[in-house]
Amino acid sequence: MARKEESAPKPKKQSRTGQIRSAYKMTRKVDPLVGWITLAAGFLVFAVMLAIGFLVNQPIFFGLIGLMLGFLAATIVFGKRAEKAAFAQVEGQPGAAAAALNMLRRGWTVTPGVAATRNQDVVHRAVGRPGVVLVGEGSPTRVANLLATERKKVTRFVPDVPVYEVQAGNEDGQVPLRRLNSKLMKMPRNLKNDQVAEVNRRLKALGTMNLPIPKGPMPKGMKMPKGPRS
Prior knowledge:
Blueprint: H1 16-30, H2 34-55, H3 59-90, H4 96-101, E1 109-116, E2 122-128, E3 131-137, H5 140-157, E4 163-168, H6 177-185, H7 193-203
Parallel strand pairs: 3-4
Antiparallel strand pairs: 1-2, 2-3
């Protein structure tokens, strides 16, 4: 009896420490002072709590609380600056909105590149409790036409579901990349979880354009398929 072929070893998952180290290296390229600012935030909180401890004659107790709060403060500051650095690296590049949408919290299904033009105007689709959100990036005029076309397709499959159109970018009427996810999270919750699952099931029939959009920004100069012109 032939021996079963040994399955290829699965790639090792990056440890939590490794993830933090990678995030720090990425952030430091954009924000060289991130390490000092993070340490300063943690130390400041610790120092304040320790000073309060001396005032009330309980330095050890308040010092321990200060250590925990200082670590929390440093974590929050680092997280905010790392997120800002990540957006700064991809902002202005085609596919940046898809990279931002992939950072949405649980409960959202993101389908990048559901429509595009040869000029690298792209529409991505996000489905969540608010309904269907179409996010376009590119020239405001061309993207508006592309969003309208995609909206018609979506409403044919889910006619009773709210469909929102959002343009990501820095032009008038567009949403800056760093505020894109918060805008989606603030939208009204119109659907229940089972309804969201049903919407996703129906929209699978629409498919995608199979654009080679990576998890990060799309490389500049990438050839896009021919699409509608404005």
